[in-house]
Structures are given as structure tokens and as C-alpha cells.
Amino acid sequence: MPAYELIDVLAYGKRRNMTMLTKRPRYFSLFTSRGCPYRCIYCHSIFGKRFRPHSPERVVEEIQWLADHYGIEDFDILDDIFNMNADRVFNIVELLKKKNMRYRFAFPNAMRTDILTEEVMDALVDMGTYMSAFALETGSPRLQKVIGKNLNIEKYLAGVRMAARRRIFSYGFAMLGFPGETAEEMQMTVDIICNSDLHAVLFFTVTPFPGTPLFEQVVRDHPERLQRLDYEGKDYLFKLTANLSQVSDEELTQKLREANRRFYLNPRRIMKIIRDYPEFRQLITLGIRFLYLQATSKL
Questions:
Q1: Residue 47 has pLDDT above 60, yes or no
Q2: At what angle do helices 267-276 and 249-264 cross, to 10 degrees?
Q3: CB under 8 Å to 94, separation ≥6 — which residues?
């Protein structure tokens, strides 16, 4: 068990968290596994590329300990790929039910969406899941191979539908500006995201971080693209970084703005967000932020 007594656990509830919620007074984050066998070229290798999970018993013990000692009732699970092993998910949920442990769970680091099944989604609902991210990254089958994610896009969309149908607040991750990406491929990503059942989305610009295969590729092929990179205090949602694509900076910026407007100004999506957002009062804060970003041309 981590030495939680060495930190102020409850102080985390006052800090910004990884979900789309602005305030969560009694929440805490934890890892139930480390490592991911997929080899996306933009991703870190901090935890290695082999899936190494805690046992279901160990996971439930830690959850219960945090609940008993600090009154935590809302948990972020930050695993790279929590749903890698379906049987493990089922066993965790079964143990929680046996102990009558009813808490709320969010997965802000995303699920591997194309391996989700109806049975796993039902188990996540039984577990108390109310919010999750689902990472698409790119809608281009060609780029899915280039970046090493190899996501099945049709199964991705089916997984999002499973979650949204169960009223899990579902938000996507997408990136524009991959090496060699064309305007047409960017449009594929935007179209897939905007036509999906996602409640929300975060469009990022591709950033090559040191220690990743993507960074090594850029150093080798386009070292001049790294000259303007500054990793301090960057907002990767709205700021251009390296722009490794085939389009100009101006066109990429315009594509990001158009993508956000098209997604969020859809009346049906607005009503869906209002219906399913876990904390209705916090929507006002998010709405004001959205209008500010629109006014300052950051969206």
C-alpha cells in the first residue's frame, strides 16, 4: 500500500483534476495496473510496454482503505489500459459488490475503446462508472498504422455508443498535426468525432516529447520543427507546437477552431451534455469558459 500518510490526501480535492469536472471535494486517483502493450509512437514509456496489474483483491483493498481513512467516495483510475483483461474487470466489480462498496469511478486517462464489450460496459456501470475518456487520436486508418495505435475505428465508435447509451459521460481525445498528415486526413478525424456519440472532445495538437519514438523521428527527419518547442506552461489544446503535418500553421489552427465549433455548437449535443453531465451546476462554469475561448479565438 502506498504511504498515503505522507501526503495530504484531501488536498487533492481542491486541485484541478484530469476529468471534465471542475470541483470534486472527496476524490482521489490511483493506479490499478502499469504498462500498455500497444506501442503508440507519441506515448511515454514510464511504466513499460507490458501490462502488469494489481490483483482484484489488492485493488479493492486500496479503495476500501482510502474510503475508510479519508472518506473518499469518488475515484479516478489512471491506468493506461484498465480494461486490458475483461475477467479482471469482472472480478473487481464482483468484489466491490460483495463488500457492498458503492463509490463513483471515472477513467480520465481513457479506455482502450476497440476492445470494449457490452458485458464489460455493464460491469463498469455496476462498478459506479459515471465518466470516461475514449481516445481516437486520428480517424485516418493510414495514420493509425503510422502512429502504432492500430485502433479499429468502427469498434471505437461502437464502444463510445455503448458508454453513451448507458449515460456514462463520454469524452474523446483527438490529435491533429501528425507527421505527414494531410488536410483530408485531418478532416477524417473531425468528421468521425463530430458524427460520434461522444458528449465532449478535446482536440490536441501533436507534440513530440523527449523519450518517445515520435521525438526521435522528428530529430532525425525534421530537426528544424523542434526549434520553437517550449514544454513549459503549454496548453496543448490550443497552442501549435511542432506541426509535423503537410498543412500550414494557419490552416491547422483554422481546422482546430472549426472542429471545436462544429462539435460543440450542435444543438443535439448541447442537450445531451445538459442531460448527462454529472454535476449540472458546474456546467455554468464550463459554459462561460467556452464562450471566453470563442471570444478570444482560441476555439
A1: yes
A2: 60
A3: 56
Grid cell in block for residue 50: 507490458
How many angstroms separate the CA atoms of 20 and 282, rounded? 10
- The C-alpha atoms of residue 72 and residue 24 are separated, in whole angstroms, by 10
Task: Tell me which residue range forms the domain holding 278.
Answer: 4-295
pLDDT score recorded for residue 297 = 52
Q: Are strands 52-53 and 33-34 parallel, antiparallel or unpaired?
A: antiparallel
Give the lowest-confidence range in 13-17, 122-126, 132-136, 181-185. 13-17
Residue-level pLDDT at 15: 81
Pick the more confident residue, 21 or 197: 197
CA distance 244 to 203: 16
Cβ atoms of 242 and 229 closer than 8 Å = yes
Which cell is 178 given?
A: 501528425
Report the pLDDT value the prediction gives residue 231, as an integer from 0 to 100: 78
Dist. CA 152–CA 115, nearest whole Å = 9
CA atoms 157, 191, 239, 22: torsion sign = negative
Tens of pLDDT along 256-276? 999 999 999 999 999 999 999
| CA-based nearest residue to 123, from 88, 79, 152 | 88
How many domains does the structure of the chain reveal?
A: 1
The Cα 211–Cα 209 span in angstroms is 6
* Integer Cα distance of 295 and 101 in angstroms: 45
What is the CATH classification number for the domain harbouring 61? 3.20.20.70
Here the cell at position 203 is 482536440
- Reported as a single tens digit per residue, the pLDDT across 61-114 is 999 999 999 999 999 999 999 999 999 999 999 999 999 999 999 999 989 999
Q: Which three cell numbers stand for residue 234?
A: 503549454
Integer Cα distance of 107 and 269 in angstroms: 21
Cα separation of the two ends of the chain:
43
Q: What are phi and psi of 89, to 5 degrees?
A: -60, -50
